[in-house]
Amino acid sequence: MFDRLREDIASVFDRDPAARTTLEVLLNYPGIHAMIFHRMAHGLWLAGYKGLARWLSSLARFLTGIEIHPGAKIGRRFFIDHGMGVVIGETAEIGDDVTLYHGVTLGGTSWNKGKRHPTLGNGVVVGAGAKVIGPILIGAGAKIGSNAVVTKPLPAGATAVGNPARIILQDDPAEQARRAFAEKIGFQAYAASPDLPDPVVEAIRHLLDHMQQADTRMDRMCEAFGRLNPGFCDQKPDELKAEDLLALQDESQQKQA
Fold first, then answer.
1. Per the confidence metrics, is the pTM higher than 0.85?
2. CATH of the domain at 23
3. How far apart are CA 232 and CA 220, in angstroms?
4. Containing H/E element for 182?
5. Residues 40-79: pLDDT tens digits?
6. Number of domains, the chain
7. 2: how many CB neighbours lie within 10 A of its CB?
8. Which of 17, 51, 178, 230 is deepest in the core (most CB within 10 A)?
9. What is the rounded CA–CA span in Å between residue 169 and residue 105?
């Protein structure tokens, strides 16, 4: 138990720059207090003392503002930042290195017994006020934006926002190809980020896909014409640079002013 506590304290220093000393973390972080209570309550739950386990978790909720059912399974280095209003249901399962912010609910959609709460893979981050509902799997490394409502599984590495939650970024081969092409023509990271409005991200994705397809077709045409005229493709198009786009944007803003 003390090894787990040391890991929990270390995870606070890793994920919260406001943390200064071990004593400060032990005295002032309700997420640490909630996990100490939960480990005791979970042990009682597994030993069959379910009533006592529920009482202990209720005491923890009164003291910390964090409600964790003693039946919930939680991995190592779990960090609840701020913590007030966090609710974790009985059949929830949480992997290692997971981070939850205040107001998060890992809830159920059914009154039937059995698995009814979500499973969070390793390294998942859930933003403030988000609701993850039902027996769904959130893949390792996924990120859920503040106030999102997630009712469907998320693949590993995805970023989801909104109500209902929509995936705006995903670590798959297509997304990696977009990022590589965006960097090639001079865009900033990915040419899209979670900070952009969702429709803008989607529009840029389609634009990058179309540009990749057009680029591939042009290369094939050059190869075909090159067989007839070896010097046909010697003339290269001007390279598209982010600086040129910014200059055009500044010029447009000056005209509007």
1. no
2. 2.160.10.10
3. 13
4. helix 173-185
5. 999 999 999 999 999 999 999 999 999 999 999 999 999 9
6. 2
7. 6
8. 178
9. 23
